[in-house]
C-alpha cells in the first residue's frame, strides 16, 4: 500500500510499500482518517534517531491516529465495523512483569508505532489490537481523535502530579505537549496555570487559551511566579521542553511540598539542584508516554472539559505528506499541531 516512508535521515517518500498484516482474533483493521505529525516523527526525519532508537531501514512514520474499523477479529467484543476509534500506539507484552504490575508503558518489550524497527501508520490502513483502540463519540471528530495521543502525555503528567483542586501550576514549554499539559492541569483542577517559553508566537497562543504567559527571554519563571504567589511558589512544575537549562531551574519556582513532573526527554544527564529540592521536600515524578488514560482523554474532549481544536493549526492531504513534513520541520511560528488527513 502507499505509505509515507522515511528512507533515511532527511529523505522521505510517499510510495508503494510492501506491508502485510494478518488480522489476529483480538485485532481490528482500521482505515486511517487523520494522523498528527509529532515531534518524534520530525526528529527521526531530521536526526535519524532518538536515544537508543536508530532508523536503520526504511520506516513508515506516524503514530497519532484516528480512523474507522473495517474488519473485526473473531474474539473482539467491544468494537464493530464502522466504529470510529483512536488508537494507543504502544503494544506491550501483556504477560510481561511491567504489564502485570499495571505499568505497561515501561515494558521494555513494548512495540510502539514509528519507533524503529516498528512501522507507523501514515498509510491508508493498519491492524491493531482492539484492546488499544478506543471508540470516539459521534461529536468527537477524527482530528480531535488524533489529538488524544499527545493529550494522553499531558493527562498522564497531570495524574502523576496528583493535583488538588485550586493548585497552581507552571508548564515549561509551549509546544503541543506543553499546551496539552496545561489544558490537562486546568481540567485536573488547577486554578491558575502559567506557561513559559522563548517564542512570542507560542506564548500568544497560550494566552489565547487562558494561560498566563511567561517570556523566559525576559527573566526566569521564578521571577514571575514568586511575586504572583506571595513568595510561595506554585504547587506543580511541568518540564515540557527537554532543555537542560530549563530542567536545571525546575525547583526555583516550586512551592514547599510541591511536585515537579519531568516530561521532556533529555539525551544527556542534566544538572539537578538537590539543595533546592531538599528544602522544599519536593516530589519529582517522571513519565514515559502514558498508561490507562486514553478513555479519560476521549471523555474530556467529548464533555468539553478540554478543547484541543485551537491547537490544530494546519491540515494537509495524505498525498501532500512529504510537503507536510518539510513545512513542519521548518517549525513555522504560530503553528502548534499539523495533521494529515486521508
Ligand atoms: Zn506523539
CATH class of the largest domain: Alpha Beta
Which structural class best describes the helix and strand composition?
Answer: alpha/beta
CATH superfamily of the largest domain: Medium-chain alcohol dehydrogenases, catalytic domain
Which percent range fits the helix content? Answer: 25-40%
Largest β-sheet summary: 7 strands, mixed
CATH topology of the largest domain: Quinone Oxidoreductase, Chain A, domain 1
Q: What hetero molecules are in the model?
A: zinc ion
| Strand element count | 20
The percentage of residues in β strands lies in 25-35%
Total of DSSP H or I helical runs spanning 4+ residues: 11
The CATH architecture classification of the largest domain is Alpha-Beta Complex
Q: Quick check: average pLDDT?
A: 96
> Which regions are unreliable across 5 or more consecutive residues at pLDDT < 50?
none
Amino acid at each position: 500500500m502507499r505509505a509515507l516512508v522515511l528512507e533515511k535521515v532527511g529523505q522521505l517518500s510517499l510510495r508503494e510499500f510492501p506491508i502485510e498484516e494478518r488480522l489476529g482474533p483480538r485485532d481490528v483493521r482500521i482505515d486511517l482518517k487523520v494522523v498528527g505529525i509529532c515531534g518524534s516523527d520530525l526528529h527521526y526525519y531530521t536526526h535519524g534517531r532518538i536515544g537508543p532508537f536508530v532508523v536503520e531501514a526504511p520506516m513508515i512514520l506516524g503514530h497519532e491516529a484516528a480512523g474507522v474499523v473495517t474488519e473485526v477479529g473473531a474474539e473482539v467484543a467491544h468494537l464493530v465495523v464502522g466504529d470510529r476509534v483512536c488508537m494507543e500506539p504502544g503494544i506491550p507484552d501483556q504477560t510481561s512483569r511491567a504489564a502485570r504490575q499495571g505499568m505497561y508503558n515501561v515494558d521494555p518489550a513494548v512495540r510502539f508505532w514509528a519507533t524503529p524497527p516498528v512501522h507507523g501508520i501514515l498509510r491508508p490502513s493498519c491492524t491493531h489490537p482492539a484492546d488499544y483502540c478506543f471508540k470516539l463519540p459521534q461529536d468527537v471528530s477524527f482530528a480531535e481523535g488524533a489529538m488524544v495521543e499527545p493529550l494522553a502525555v499531558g493527562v498522564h503528567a497531570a495524574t502523576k502530579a496528583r493535583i488538588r483542586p485550586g493548585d497552581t501550576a507552571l508548564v515549561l514549554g509551549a509546544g503541543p505537549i506543553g499546551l496539552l499539559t496545561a489544558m490537562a492541569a486546568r481540567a485536573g483542577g488547577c486554578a491558575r496555570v502559567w506557561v513559559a517559553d522563548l517564542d512570542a508566537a507560542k506564548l500568544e497562543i497560550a494566552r489565547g487559551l487562558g494561560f498566563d504567559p511567561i517570556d523566559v527571554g525576559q527573566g526566569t519563571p521564578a521571577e514571575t511566579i514568586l511575586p504572583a504567589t506571595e513568595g510561595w511558589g506554585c504547587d506543580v512544575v511541568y518540564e515540557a521542553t527537554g532543555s537542560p537549562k530549563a530542567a536545571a531551574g525546575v525547583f526555583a519556582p516550586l512551592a514547599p511540598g510541591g511536585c515537579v513532573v519531568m516530561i521532556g526527554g533529555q539525551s544527556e544527564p542534566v544538572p539537578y539542584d538537590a539543595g533546592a529540592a531538599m528544602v522544599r521536600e519536593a516530589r519529582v515524578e517522571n513519565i514515559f508516554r502514558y498508561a490507562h488514560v486514553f478513555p479519560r482523554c476521549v471523555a474530556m474532549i467529548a464533555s468539553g472539559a478540554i478543547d484541543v481544536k485551537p491547537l490544530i493549526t494546519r491540515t494537509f492531504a495524505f498525498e501532500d505528506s512529504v510537503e507536510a513534513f518539510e513545512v513542519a520541520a521548518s517549525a513555522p511560528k504560530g503553528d502548534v499541531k499539523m495533521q494529515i488527513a486521508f
